[in-house]
Amino acid sequence: MPIKRQTIRDHSAEANLFARRTVIAGLIVIALLGMVVSNLYYLQVKHFDDYQTRSNGNRIKVLPIAPNRGLIYDRNGVLLAENRPVYNLEVIPEQVDNLDETLAGLQSLMGITDDEIDDFRQALRGQRRFKPVALRSRLSEQEVARFASRSHQYPGVSIEARLARYYPYGDMLTHVLGYVAKINKKDLQKIKEAGQEANYAATYDIGKLGIEKYHEDILHGSVGYQQVEVNSQGRIIRTLDVDPPVPGRDIVLNIDIRLQQAAQKALEGQRGTVVLASPHTGGILAMYSNPSYDPNLFVHGISRKNYAALLNSPDRPLINRATQGQYPPASTVKPLLALLSLETETIDKSFTIKDNGRYSLPNVSHVWRDWKKWGHGDVDVTRSIEVSCDTYYYELAYQMGIDMISGYMSEFGFGDYTGIDLYEESDANMPSRGWKKARHNQPWYIGDTISVGIGQGYWTTTPVQLIHATNALVNYGARFVPQILRGYQQPDGQVALEPLKSLRPIEIKNQENWEIVLDAMYGTVNREHGTARTAFVGTNYTAAGKTGTAQLFSVGQNEKYEAEKVDERLRDNAMYVGFAPYENPELTVAVVLENAGGGSSNAAPIARIMMDEFFRLNPDAIKYPKTAKTD
User: Which of 249, 262, 544, 555 has the greatest CB tally within 10 Å of its CB?
Assistant: First the structure.
């Protein structure tokens, strides 16, 4: 067996192999280091700004800050709408792993009701998942403490303190102020269309009705922002920078809360409205519609039960009767019809008729009756207003015709929006031939004109239109848009007044015609046979006005109207328009009472209450005549 020889190691070859391997490994290391350095250069130098921004985006967040809503004051500085702190239980859906499980746990812990869960899910549909949605509002201190002890079990759920709107006078001012409520899907769409989406990024409520809605752009303010540093769980560690929001402007209204209180008390138990205004500015001093409702119910979300009760109430509390109620003006417009007939020379101031309580036309079988069965005897234009003679105005309407009446009454604002700073306004209806043809596809009949002559038939108006027309009358044709906004509260306590909004004045050829009509309205209140004389006995100011009784139920030719036999909702509306002092008017008033009966016995006394209160509060406004008027 051959002996195996040992191989002699070639140290030189091994050394060369090791050297080659070392060079190759070194080159690989250098290449890898080059790649690392190149990548570091790419990240830290070339694209430093981009990646720093991305890094800060994970570490630094920009959060919007909602502005404080502007406050609302009455003309004397009384606070009518304020902001109060409240605690809300809020959920950010994006941060909740199992929403159903979380809601079930919160129901057990906080006593959340099924209705609140339903409302939450409804709100969730119109909200983005990264934005918080309130589950319960106005938490008590005990509820805050109860959740705080278990908050770690509910990621994505937190208690947030916010400022919420509060209306200290409740239902007294609802139809004037309106209210704010949660922004819904429809509101979001309008905000987006207006290009205001960024400004409402942190806002939860928006004006829904009244002044709150009409002056939303003034009251809301401008959003602010804060830069905050957050940890990996998204919790804020510190605030880096703040761009504070600009709060909404505090506004001052023409409303006097003392007159508003008087109006609410005067209308207690009745359906109707009272409007008081300054004739020389158009400023609305009081506007109360009864019945009303508490706007605070809507701020945090009204329950379905409460809303259904308001919506289905036969008394219609949701309607602002002052601007949306449409009523036949009845005899309150007789002074305007008299002015038209004088101005067009249809009659002169001595034109007289013999009123026996009945009016008929040639070849027409229908007989129109006066409110006074046996009539008023000899009646001229002044007496026709004082005693509210229907027969006189049947004749005037017949002579003038609907075209003349409709055109002239439109000049006083009937059948059109007054422009008051409320979106909730009706234009009512000033009828014409064209209107009837378009609406009923029927021609205009002479009987329609006769009814319009006493403010009945197709003619409807709103109480704010009545006060607007009365203002124009006492101003000898000068017209101002009715305004609730008076101005803006300044830091020094002064009020920067909102400019008056004037309209094209009503011009007439004979200025004496103004005096004839206004003197007749004086007689309505102060002369022996005036329909409102009883209501204003013993005042320390001189008032003037016109009563009205609007018939809602048609009575047959040979039948007698008996209120007790008519359904309550079909009984006559009581109405009154007036002004005082007669010598230099400082106040105009319009009163409408639904189904209350006669204007002289029901509406005029309420007007007296309101005028008494106004002059008690403003004794310097009383102007005594230099010479006694002849009754």
Answer: 544
